[in-house]
Specification:
heterodimer, A: nine-stranded mixed beta sheet, 14 helices, 45% helix, elongated, B: mainly alpha
Chain lengths: 344, 339
């Protein structure tokens, strides 16, 4: 009886210690929360898994859409927001926020034309805009044919496929069309959702790629990774330097490197139609938005450590998902921006 | 004797106490029930009020114009509800036109014609259909039905009925009737108002047919047997005995299905085509209230968000009006029958 009581006590003590050490471990790891853009969700998940393995700090990211992400960081309910459209300078100043880009990705026009493979069709921006405006309605239109000598384009109606949901992909795509077509800039403008002059709307990248696959003679736009995964033919584009380029990690990186970061405050540059000779014209980034004076110092510190780690070590993870890590020159600029703007 | 009187005296206060307790319990119970009922009312008013409050900015900016404008342009911040409201009403109307006769057939077959051993399995299969989540109907619609529709049904409709046939030869129907406009389409794909209507019909058939089957079974067999004895055919019994006997419940079932069709979101979003354009053709893509909200809410801000809230309020109003019409129809029927 006595022995059993003793051993019971021992077990009890052991249990108390075990529980205590468990709590101690839990206290060491800090969970940071972010919300916003669905464009960065895959790469953020991959980074956070790698980072958690290394440090034990977890990232909880809700891919609720850029608008909601910015709204939540303004309310201060999360540690960082992520948005596909840069936050306006007035808003940043009013709420004491700063922003910086984290990763680059490409958006590609995709087509379904019988007998035409990826990269065979070449278009310039103005033609692409006129197709999406509904002004060019046939694939054998002289304006398309003149840019595609040797490609057998059928006399088939063009069906435009666009995103039906508000999205950063649409934001960057329409931003590009506004830059290359005065007509588009005047009639449709750019934004996460616009009034599309023609065509059918698919929900999400998967909805658009599904429609493009189903509809013969269609043209849509998706993130590069979706076109690769779903084996849809993309279109090569003529960029601002007058070169015809194919979408690739190098072309996206070239756009990120040649975008006009120097003259922009708070990295407020939409890098579509970048000037580099090899730059892919519809390249997009996602900005992370954080408080300059943190509400929760400990969480913010961990968040910065996470992004520092991701920008410096996350290239491989990004590449495996067909994103492109930021070029070194830009990473240096971001780290300088952190040092000068953020107090933590 | 004395003891006896004492016993009676003791029971009277006991009975009174019990009666008081019962009365108290009844009162509590009725308050509880009243609370439950009021809670539903409060939820309804709260939701309607919240959407109206959220949409006040849009209603204030556009006024009545919001209801009749077909613009939905986030670029210049102009919004109108006409396209989504029309899409919601049209898809639900098509769904009803298809679903009601089919449900009627299913219910009649199961309650009047089918051999008894077949009734229970088929009835449970239909109830299972009613339990399938709408996203699954949506995926089926997008991946299987829409391509099939585009390849096999739509070309036939546009060629023989529409005013924009591929070969340029207008059919007699297209030249002489309004069907030409209804079935003309420039688009070669399957997502359209008609596709959404058909998918909705498939979704609401289980609801309507199981209600109809239940009520058809309540018709007293002596009525039916009398009619049969007088030499009626099965059709005559169904049309002249079963249907009039169950008319109000049948209409109730139809409106239950209509309610689901009006508010259906995911399945419609997948197959409606999500184009904010007003078109006379039911083979062109469109938008519904629920699909517009589902599509745009996550990225909307400011006036656009307010307009989406206003759309949600309009969905309340549309549903309410539909229910009012149902009530009115039932009353008209009751009048006609002299009740």
């Amino acid at each position: 009886m006595l022995i059993s009581t003793k051993s019971m006590t021992r077990i009890g003590t052991a249990a108390v210690f075990a529980t205590a050490s468990l709590f101690a471990m839990a206290a060491q790891a800090t969970d940071i929360t972010g919300a916003g853009s669905s464009f960065v969700y895959p790469v953020l998940s991959k980074w956070s898994a790698g980072y958690a393995e290394k440090t034990g700090n977890k990232l909880n990211y809700q891919s609720v859409g850029s608008g909601a992400g910015v709204a939540q960081i303004k309310e201060g309910t999360i540690d960082f927001g992520a948005t596909d459209a840069p936050v306006k300078a007035e808003d940043l100043a009013q709420f004491g926020l700063g922003q910086f880009p984290v990763v680059v990705g490409g958006i590609v026009p995709v087509v379904n034309i019988p007998g035409v493979e990826a990269g065979q069709v070449k278009l310039d921006g103005a033609t692409l805009a006129d197709i999406f405006l509904g002004k060019i309605t046939m694939w054998n239109d002289p304006r398309i044919a003149s840019q595609n000598a040797g490609v057998n384009l059928p006399a088939k109606k063009i069906t435009v496929v666009h995103r039906s949901d508000g999205s950063g992909t649409s934001f960057n795509f329409t931003n590009y069309l506004s830059k290359v077509s005065p007509d588009w800039a005047a009639k449709v403008k750019f934004g996460t959702a616009v009034e599309w002059p023609t065509g059918v709307g698919g929900k999400g990248n998967e909805g658009v790629s599904q429609y493009v696959k189903q509809i013969v003679g269609s043209i849509g736009y998706v993130e590069y990774a979706y076109a690769v995964k779903n084996k849809i033919s993309w279109v090569d584009l003529k960029n601002a330097a007058g070169q015809v380029v194919a979408p690739s990690a190098e072309a996206f990186a070239a756009a990120a490197a040649t975008a006009d970061w120097a003259s922009a405050k708070d990295f407020n540059v939409i890098m579509t139609n970048a000037s580099g000779a090899q730059a892919w014209p519809i390249t997009a980034t996602t900005w992370v938005v954080m408080y300059k004076k943190p509400k929760n110092a400990e969480h913010t510190k961990v968040a910065f450590e996470f992004f520092k780690w991701a920008l410096e070590n996350g290239q491989k993870d990004a590449a495996s998902l067909d994103y492109v890590a930021l070029p070194d020159t830009l990473v240096k600029k971001i780290e300088a921006y952190w040092a000068s703007e953020y107090k933590h | 004797m004395q003891a006896n009187v004492g016993a009676v005296d003791a029971t009277v206060p006991q009975q009174e106490a019990r009666a008081r307790r019962d009365a108290r319990h009844d009162r509590l119970f009725s308050w509880l029930l009243k609370g439950c009922a009021l809670l539903v009312l409060a939820c309804l008013l709260g939701a309607a009020g919240a959407t109206l409050w959220g949409g006040r900015h849009a209603f204030g900016t556009f006024g009545w114009h919001f209801l009749v404008s077909d613009a939905w342009d986030p670029g210049s911040d102009t919004y109108g509800a006409l396209v989504p409201v029309y899409g919601t009403l049209m898809t639900s109307f098509i769904a009803l036109v298809i679903a009601v006769p089919i449900s009627f057939g299913i219910a009649l077959y199961l309650s009047e014609v089918a051999p008894p051993w077949l009734r229970t399995p088929v009835a449970s299969a239909i109830e299972l259909l009613a339990g399938i989540p709408s996203i699954i109907y949506g995926m089926w619609g997008l991946f299987i039905f829409a391509p099939f529709f585009a390849d096999h049904i739509k070309p036939w409709l546009t060629n023989y009925l529409g005013n924009k046939p591929d070969d340029g030869k207008l059919s007699w129907v297209a030249q002489h009737t309004f069907l030409g406009k209804l079935f003309g389409s420039d688009y070669p794909f399957g997502a359209s108002i008609l596709t959404a209507g058909i998918v909705l019909a498939v979704m609401i058939i289980p609801f309507i047919s199981s209600v109809m089957r239940e009520v058809f079974q309540t018709v007293p067999s002596r009525l039916k047997e009398s009619a049969y004895a007088l030499g009626s055919s099965t059709w005559e019994v169904s049309w002249d005995i079963v249907l009039p006997y169950t008319r109000s419940a049948v209409i109730g079932g139809i409106f239950l299905g209509l309610g689901r069709a009006l508010g259906e979101t995911m399945a419609v979003t997948f197959v409606l085509g999500n184009a904010m354009q007003l078109s006379a053709s039911i083979l062109d893509p469109g938008a519904s209230i629920a699909s517009t909200i589902a599509n745009q809410f996550s990225e909307a801000a400011g006036l656009q968000k307010s307009s989406l809230m206003a759309l949600a309020f309009l969905l309340f109003v549309v549903t309410f009006i539909v229910l009012l019409i149902a009530r009115w129809m039932l009353r008209q029927l009751a009048h006609k029958e002299g009740r």
